[in-house]
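Quick start: read one record
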Amino acid sequence: MYIKIFLLIATISLCSCVKSDKRKTVYQEQVGDTPFDIKLDNPDFKFCDSTNVYHSRAKITYKKGNKDLEKDIKNNYVYQTSFEDVSGYFFVRLAINCEGKAGRFRVQFVDNEFKESSAPEKLKKQIISILRKLKGWKPVQSKGQLYDGYTFIVVKIANGKIISQ
């Protein structure tokens, strides 16, 4: 009996939501967007439609997948002995526009216990530089159309070297 009542309430709630046309379609100021920062971002990077940006990382791919991404990052990485004390994870958020171009890179470093930490600025800049140069992004595709979107990349570092996850 409780299940039927709950289902009835859920159905009524869903119906009332579906009938409402008060949904916002502009996402620029909502949580999750990365606003343009003149100090960090390339002014040439543009969204194709900034009012319709996907926030689902699963829809953006790189070439044939994560193995290609990992290989290209590792192949461009230059180990330096000054990095040997660094272990943890770089979480990099970036936007991919409908043309497959990347921009708006933001990075956070955490230690192996996932506590916010710091890494040498030179290492951080190298990781971002590698990701900026990568070509082969496949933007969000839905119903035959290409869209702008955001994704995350995690780069694991152990003793200054990039390792597989």
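DSSP finds three helices and eight strands in the chain.
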